[in-house]
Amino acid sequence: MIPAEILKQVRRIEIYTNRVVNETMAGRYESVFKGRGIEFDEVREYQPGDEVRSIDWNVTARTGRPHIKRFVEERELTVMCLVDLSRSTAFGSVRQLKNRLAAELCAVLAFSAIKNHDKVGLLIFTDRIERFIPPKKGPRHVLRVIREVLSFEPVGHGTDMRGALEYLNRVVRHKSVAFLISDFVVGDVRSPLAVSNRRHDVIAMHLVDPRQETLPSIGWLRLEDAETGRTTIINSASAAVRQRYERWEAERRERLQGMWRGAGMDVVEIRTDRPYVDPLLRFFRMRAHRR
After folding, report:
1. Reported pTM
2. Domain coverage including residue 56
């Protein structure tokens, strides 16, 4: 039985994200992701003006008349949402938790996909594969995906992104558009990211909370690593301590940028203190311009 509170949240997200898709994202998704490949359509007789290199020599030899192979753009995509629900995503200091933001992102992407008759699948991971929902079409399926992200209680605490990417490569055989939604509290996973990005189109959706970037000046703090449980005590009133923390965070962000560049993938920064529509639209415009 699904709790009433979860159903309320699902309904709220459904209404809001549907409006975002219909009013703001309309046409953006299709212009960026549709027609990314070609598939065989038919063999027909050669007509003046056809490309000579399209001639099917086997059929031509068999029939005694020139025939060509005709291809059309691929119109159906598989969209995968890979959602990191490790302990560090159960945090948010401003508008909402990172894991709730992940659910809304899944909803926007999934509703955009089904509006264009694409399939949507879900992979939830922590330091293990927690849940896999195979790609399917339809509004009911999308609502199930949203419910799973909102209501799922993960067993693991840490983040095994390498394992999640390897699992994606094993179970999703055809090329997909894979949105990797995470706060990227990970080590160097450049190699598995690059492998998956060659097989699929992997896009990093980086969840960021402003409290990760700066410490408040409020005196002594006991900080706990959500994923490992390790604790440390610091004096946040010290300017030197705050500066060291900000330098450490800036270096971490720089390492992540280098990792994403090395894997050849696109990144969208989604913040808990700002609406996510603008960065999504900037990403779609950038992709459309590149195409």
Report:
1. 0.81
2. 39-72
